[in-house]
Amino acid sequence: YEISLGLVGSEMCIRDSAYTLVVGDIGNFIGVGSGGSIVIPNSVFSAGDAISIFNNTTGNITITCTITTAYKAGTNADIATATLETRGVATILFISGTVCVIGGNLA
Q: What are the backbone dihedrals phi and psi of residue 90, each rounded to the nearest 5 degrees, phi first?
């Protein structure tokens, strides 16, 4: 299988409030500023889509998983939320429209 994450030359959008990921975010990375958080919606993305998140704050941020199944990479646990650590990066890889895996600097 060949999957391109599209991160070379990708655009960064800064979000300072709660933000729900959209199809236009695929291949880009989202910078989260003060007061920001991320929501992963259900049935929006397709297999192989990937989005990276950068926590550009001095505290942890919450990634809320409204997608049907969200796995923390390296575990078999379906999680409802993930905590992205200060100045951390997480990548969300979509396995299907209803399943994703989140890996990176998660608490």
A: -130, 145
